Structure prediction request, 91 residues.
Amino acid sequence: MAADETSIKVSTAARDRLAQLAAEHGTTIRSLVEDLAQDTPTRAEYAERADLARAELAAALGQAPSPEAEAKARALLERLGNNQHGSQAAA
Prediction:
């Protein structure tokens, strides 16, 4: 094992599922896990993105969106995200 590598322990069921997912995506478990870690924002990164979006909207609209507008936008994005994950599972 190289100096910058480590191993993680998961259940056999999780390993088998990761292997299946990797095979379906034409990749390896290692790449699948590395991509997940690299591509999934942390809560702090989400908060930073939200702050930037608020600032951009305020600059473009002349005022920040109301909490109600933010809640509606968040609900829409969550629905879109759920639809995307559902369509990927069906593919």
